[in-house]
C-alpha cells in the first residue's frame, strides 16, 4: 500500500490522471500500480517537475506557459478515461477467424443467453439484422442507430451501430463485431472507445486474426486477460487459376466486384445484355467442380488459350465490355437478357437489402437457373450481382463465386492495389455456409490480375499496429480554453497534431471534423453544438451533403428549430429513370438521413423526426423501384448502349436522342452544345474522382465547400432570412 501511495504521488507530480483512490477493485488497483510505476520511473529520472529542459515522449511541448496545454494533450492512458468499465472485472473473449467461419454466430449465442447485453456493429444493416434475429428468437431487443431508435417493451438487449454504444449502462454481455476496424483511421476510435469503455461482465469481440496482437496489448493495458477462440472457414474457398474470357462467362450465382460508380453501372448493363455461355454450352454453373468461367465450349471444357484470355486485359479497370471478336465468334447465343442486381455503399441500406434479397431469391437453389432466362425482379430474382466492397459486410448473400473486375481502388487520395485483408474480406463472401453452395470460388476478369489475386489470397494479413484514438469533447474544450484560441476548429486541429499517444494507440484522422467545424464557425453555435455538427455523417467531398449541412446548421443557429420543409422540396417524386437521376435521389436520401441523425442529438430543434423518416423511407422506396426498373430496362435494351468494348456508358439522359441534338443545325446548334457541355463536364469530373482522379475530386470538393459557405452567409444575412423557410 505504501508503494501504491508513492506511485500515486509520483503520478500526480507529473499531472497524470488516476482512478479514484478509494476504489478497491482489482482492475483499478492494477491500473494505479501500472501508471504509478511509469510515473515513478520518470520521477526517478528527474522528470517529476516540468522545467524548460525536460522533455516527454510526445509531439507537443511541456514547458513554460504551455504546461497546462501539454498536460491536456497527454492521451497516453485512455483506459483511465472510463472508470465505470475499470470498476468491472471483465472477461474478454476474442473470436477470430476468416469470413464465413461462424465466429459472430458463436458470440451472438453468448449474447442471447445473457440477461442483458448489447451488440455493436459497423453498419445499420448489421444492427437491424441482429435486432430482428434476437426478437424472432424470443429475446426482446431494441435497435439504436444514429438515424433511428426502435424500442421494444421489456427489452434488456440492444443492437446498435458502434458509434451509439452506451458506456453508462452495465451489461452482462457485449459483442463488438468487425474488431479489425480498430485500426481504421477515420472510424477506428469508436471501436477503441467501446472496447475500453463498455462496462460488461463478458465482452466478446469478433473479427480478423490480424487484430489479435493488438487485442492482447489493449487487454494488458486495461489490466485484463484475453481469451482467444480461433475458427476455421466452414466451406472451402478456391482461387481459380485463369481469368474469365468475357462477360459471357459470368455465371448465375456470381458477384462481380468493382470500385467506382461508373464501372458498376456499366458492368451491370453489359452483363445484363450478354447471354451466359453456359446456356449455350450445356454448363449449369451449379454442379460439382468449378463454375463455368474459363472453359472453351468448342473444346468440351478444356482450358482456353492464352491469346483468348488476353482479350480481357483491359477489363480489370471495370470497363466490362464484351470483346467484339468474341461476340462475332459466339454469335447471339440464346439472345435472352439476364437479370442483374446492384449493390454499392451510396445506396440506402433498404435498397441494398432489397437487392440482396432478390439476388438470393434467384440463387436460393445453389445457383441454379442458369438458363439465361432473364428473370427480373418480379420473376424470381437476380441471377448475377454487381457490387462494390459494400458486399464485404452487412449482407447475407448466396454468392457462389466472387469475380474481381479490378484489384485496384481509389481510396480518396490515390489509386492503389487492394490490401490482402481487403481482398480476403470480399472473396470470403463466396460459398457462404448454408447458402446452398458447398464451395466458394474467387476469380478475376483480367489475366493481369490473376497473380495479384493469388498472392493476396495466399499472403498473411499484416497484424494491426495500433488502435485509433481521438480526444474527448471535454479534453478538446479544456485544450481550447487553455490555449485561449479564438477558433475551435484550430484548437481541434492543433490538439490532434500535438497530442501525445503511446503504443498501442495512435491518433485517428479528424480532418473531416475539422473542416466541418471550420465551415460552421461563423454561426453563433456553442462549442458543444459545433462539435456535435462536426461529428455528423457528412462527407465533405460531397457537395450536396455539404450544402445540406450548412443549411440546417444555419437554420438551427437562427431559429433553434428546423423542419423537414428545408429539404422536402428537393426530394424526388418519381422513381429514377437514369443513372443521373439515381445519383440525385441518393443525394436526397442522404439529406433526409442527416436530418434524422441531427434529430437524435437535438430533439427539441429537429422535432419532426417521424416526418423526416417518412420522407427518407419514401425516397428509399423510389430508389428501390428505380433500381428494379433500370435493371429490367438495361437487360431488355441491350445495356443502354454500353456494351461496345467496355467504353460506353449508356445514355443517362432519360432517353433523349443525342444525335438529334447534334444534327440541329443553324444558329441554335452552338447554344444547344453549350447547354449540354456543363453537365457533361460535371459528370466527367465525378467519374475521374471515382476512378482515381484526385484533382477532380479536390475540385468538386472545393466547389461544394464554396457553394455551402455562400449559402451559409446568405442565411446569416438578416435581410435574406425572410426568404428561407423557418
UniProtKB/TrEMBL annotation:
This is RNA helicase. Its cofactor is Mg(2+); Mn(2+). It is an enzyme of class 3 (hydrolase). One of its GO terms (cellular component) is Ski complex. It comes from Raphidocelis subcapitata. Keywords: ATP-binding, Helicase, Hydrolase, Mitochondrion, Mitochondrion nucleoid, Nucleotide-binding, Transit peptide. One of its GO terms (biological process) is nuclear-transcribed mRNA catabolic process, 3'-5' exonucleolytic nonsense-mediated decay. Its EC number is 3.6.4.13. Residues 276-335, 636-706 are annotated as: Disordered. It holds the Pfam family DEXQc_Suv3. It is found in: Mitochondrion matrix, Mitochondrion nucleoid. Residues 654-670, 679-691 have a biased composition (Basic and acidic residues). It catalyses: ATP + H2O = ADP + phosphate + H(+). Residues 280-290, 636-653 have a biased composition (Gly residues). GO terms for molecular function: ATP binding; hydrolase activity; RNA helicase activity. Homodimer; in free form. Component of the mitochondrial degradosome (mtEXO) complex which is a heteropentamer containing 2 copies of SUPV3L1 and 3 copies of PNPT1. Residues 327-434 form the Helicase C-terminal domain.
Amino acid at each position: 500500500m505504501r508503494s501504491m501511495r508513492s506511485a500515486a504521488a509520483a503520478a500526480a507530480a507529473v499531472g497524470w490522471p488516476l482512478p479514484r483512490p478509494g476504489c478497491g477493485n482489482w482492475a483499478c488497483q492494477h491500473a494505479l500500480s501500472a501508471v504509478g510505476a511509469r510515473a515513478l520511473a520518470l520521477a526517478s529520472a528527474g522528470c517529476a517537475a516540468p522545467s524548460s529542459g525536460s522533455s516527454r515522449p510526445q509531439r507537443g511541448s511541456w514547458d513554460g506557459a504551455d504546461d497546462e496545454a501539454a498536460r491536456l494533450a497527454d492521451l497516453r492512458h485512455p483506459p483511465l478515461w472510463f472508470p465505470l468499465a475499470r470498476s468491472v472485472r471483465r472477461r474478454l473473449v476474442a473470436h477470430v477467424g476468416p469470413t464465413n467461419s461462424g465466429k459472430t454466430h458463436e458470440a451472438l449465442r453468448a449474447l442471447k443467453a445473457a440477461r442483458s447485453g448489447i451488440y455493436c456493429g459497423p453498419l445499420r444493416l448489421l444492427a437491424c439484422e441482429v435486432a430482428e434475429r434476437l426478437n424472432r428468437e424470443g429475446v426482446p431487443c431494441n435497435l439504436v442507430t444514429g438515424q433511428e431508435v426502435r424500442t421494444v417493451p421489456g427489452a434488456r438487449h440492444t443492437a446498435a451501430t458502434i458509434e451509439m454504444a452506451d458506456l453508462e449502462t452495465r451489461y452482462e454481455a457485449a459483442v463488438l463485431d468487425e474488431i479489425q476496424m480498430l485500426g481504421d483511421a477515420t472510424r477506428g476510435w469508436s471501436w477503441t472507445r467501446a472496447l475500453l469503455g463498455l462496462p460488461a461482465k463478458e465482452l466478446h469481440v469478433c473479427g480478423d486474426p490480424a487484430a489479435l496482437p493488438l487485442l492482447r496489448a489493449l487487454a494488458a493495458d486495461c489490466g485484463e486477460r484475453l481469451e482467444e477462440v480461433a475458427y476455421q472457414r466452414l466451406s472451402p474457398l478456391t482461387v481459380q487459376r485463369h481469368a474469365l474470357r468475357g462477360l459471357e462467362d459470368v455465371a448465375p450465382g456470381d458477384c462481380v466486384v468493382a470500385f467506382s460508380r461508373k464501372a458498376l453501372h456499366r458492368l451491370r448493363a453489359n452483363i445484363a445484355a450478354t447471354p451466359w455461355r453456359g446456356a449455350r454450352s450445356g454448363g449449369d454453373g451449379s454442379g460439382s467442380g468449378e463454375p463455368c468461367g474459363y472453359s472453351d465450349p468448342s473444346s468440351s471444357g478444356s482450358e482456353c488459350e492464352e491469346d483468348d484470355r488476353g482479350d480481357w486485359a483491359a477489363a480489370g479497370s471495370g470497363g466490362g465490355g464484351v470483346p467484339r471478336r468474341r461476340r462475332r465468334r459466339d454469335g447471339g447465343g440464346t439472345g435472352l437478357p439476364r437479370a442483374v442486381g446492384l449493390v454499392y455503399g451510396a445506396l440506402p441500406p433498404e435498397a441494398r437489402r432489397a437487392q440482396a434479397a432478390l439476388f438470393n431469391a434467384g440463387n436460393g437453389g445453389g445457383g441454379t437457373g442458369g438458363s439465361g432466362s432473364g428473370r427480373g425482379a418480379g420473376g424470381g430474382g437476380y441471377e448475377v450481382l454487381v457490387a462494390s466492397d459494400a458486399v464485404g459486410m452487412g449482407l447475407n448473400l448466396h454468392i457462389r463465386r466472387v469475380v474481381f473486375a479490378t484489384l485496384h481502388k481509389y481510396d480518396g487520395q490515390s489509386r492503389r492495389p487492394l490490401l490482402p485483408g481487403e481482398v480476403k474480406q470480399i472473396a470470403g463472401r463466396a460459398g457462404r455456409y448454408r447458402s446452398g453452395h458447398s464451395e466458394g470460388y474467387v476469380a478475376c476478369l483480367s489475366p493481369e490480375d490473376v497473380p495479384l489475386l493469388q498472392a493476396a489470397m495466399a499472403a498473411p494479413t499484416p497484424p494491426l499496429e495500433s488502435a485509433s484514438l481521438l480526444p474527448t469533447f471535454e479534453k478538446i474544450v479544456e485544450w481550447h480554453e487553455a490555449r485561449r484560441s479564438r477558433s475551435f476548429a484550430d484548437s481541434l486541429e492543433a490538439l490532434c497534431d500535438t497530442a501525445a499517444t503511446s503504443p498501442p494507440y495512435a491518433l485517428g484522422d479528424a480532418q473531416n471534423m475539422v473542416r466541418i467545424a471550420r465551415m460552421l464557425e461563423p454561426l453563433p453555435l456553442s462549442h458543444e453544438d459545433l462539435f456535435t455538427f462536426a461529428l455528423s455523417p457528412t462527407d465533405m467531398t460531397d457537395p450536396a451533403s455539404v450544402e445540406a449541412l450548412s443549411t440546417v446548421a444555419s437554420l438551427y443557429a437562427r431559429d433553434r428549430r428546423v423542419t423537414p420543409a428545408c429539404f422536402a422540396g428537393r426530394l424526388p417524386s418519381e422513381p429514377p429513370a437514369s443513372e443521373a437521376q439515381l445519383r440525385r435521389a441518393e443525394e436526397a436520401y442522404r439529406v433526409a438521413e442527416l436530418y434524422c441523425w441531427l434529430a437524435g442529438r437535438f430533439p427539441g430543434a429537429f422535432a419532426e423526426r417521424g416526418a423526416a423518416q417518412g420522407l427518407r423511407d419514401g425516397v428509399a422506396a423510389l430508389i428501390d423501384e428505380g433500381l428494379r426498373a433500370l435493371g429490367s430496362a438495361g437487360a431488355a435494351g441491350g445495356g443502354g448502349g454500353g456494351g461496345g468494348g467496355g467504353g460506353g456508358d449508356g445514355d443517362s439522359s432519360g432517353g433523349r436522342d443525342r444525335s438529334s441534338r447534334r444534327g440541329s443545325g443553324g444558329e441554335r446548334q452552338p447554344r444547344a452544345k453549350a447547354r449540354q457541355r456543363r453537365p457533361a463536364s460535371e459528370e466527367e469530373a465525378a467519374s475521374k474522382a471515382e476512378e482515381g482522379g484526385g484533382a477532380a475530386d479536390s475540385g468538386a470538393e472545393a466547389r461544394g465547400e464554396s457553394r455551402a459557405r455562400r449559402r451559409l452567409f446568405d442565411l446569416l444575412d438578416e435581410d435574406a432570412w425572410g426568404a428561407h423557410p423557418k
